[in-house]
Amino acid sequence: MKYLTIALAKGRLAEISMDLFEKIGLDCSEMRKKSRKLIFTDEKNKVKFILVKASDVPTYVEYGAADIGVVGKDTLLEEGRNLYEMIDLGVGKCRMCVCGPEKMRSQLSTTNNLRVASKFTNIARNYFFREKGRTVEIIKLHGSVELAPLVGLSEVIVDIVESGKTLQENGLCVLETICDISARFVVNRVSMKMERERILEIVSKMKAVMDTEEG
Ligand code: PRP
């Protein structure tokens, strides 16, 4: 039997994903041990897990280097890859928001040449250009985005808000909510045909675990 390869997003989401895969009977014990390894094998179930940077999960899955991936909706929206989004796992919940200092609330719709800093430039562009019909300047950052309005790099940011703590501790607030985010189970299009039964079995077991936990 061929190995099924599952791509997990390094960090918090990998931990949450491991919990889910263990609940459906896959062995993640090797991956739980702190190491720098990037590939882990569950010989019994013929599954390989690979740990990749969150924003690369859709790439591995689209190209078929991974059959399955678990990744945030934020990354899927930003990367716009061609793959099947099978399940909303209902974990890793947060919101994609426009944030800034409270004083920007009244000025947001009227400021000319609004500068928007974000790690999610496609999401930001789509929101301001398409949904709002506005021309804004999008500034790409790679992290600690909350800093941008504090030092005058931008007026607002587009970023993920989970607990709201980062905003609060930096004197910023949510000005507009763009969309809700959660972790998604995604599948390569060819794998979905070639390994249909095994993948659908994983999907139905995942759904059963989610139903049990909800109930
Ligand atoms: C994310 C996000 C916010 C923060 C939100 O950053 O970009 O900064 O978490 O969480 P909170 O609302 O619970 O405070 P991440 O931890 O990925 O770090 P980064 O900014 O360096 O990318």
Structural account:
This protein has nine helices and eleven strands. It is an alpha/beta fold. The strands form two sheets. A six-stranded mixed sheet has the order 2-3-1-4-11-5. Strands 8-7-9-6-10 form a five-stranded mixed sheet. A hairpin with a 4-residue loop joins strand 2 and strand 3. 1-O-pyrophosphono-5-O-phosphono-alpha-D-ribofuranose binds next to strand 9 and helix 7.
Helix content: 25-40%
What is the succession of H and E elements? EHHEEHEHEEEHEHEHEEHH
Strand order of the largest sheet: 2-3-1-4-11-5
Total beta strands: 11
Number of helices: 9
- Shape, please? elongated
Task: Please specify the SSE layout and strand pairing.
Elements lengths: L3 E6 L2 H12 L5 H4 L6 E4 L4 E6 L4 H6 L5 E5 H7 L4 E5 L5 E7 L14 E4 L2 H11 L5 E4 L6 H4 L5 E6 L3 H5 L3 E9 L1 E5 L1 H6 L1 H19 L1
Parallel strand pairs: 1-3, 1-4, 7-8, 7-9
Antiparallel strand pairs: 2-3, 4-11, 5-11, 6-9, 6-10
Bound molecules: 1-O-pyrophosphono-5-O-phosphono-alpha-D-ribofuranose.
1-O-pyrophosphono-5-O-phosphono-alpha-D-ribofuranose (PRP) binds next to strand 9 and helix 7.
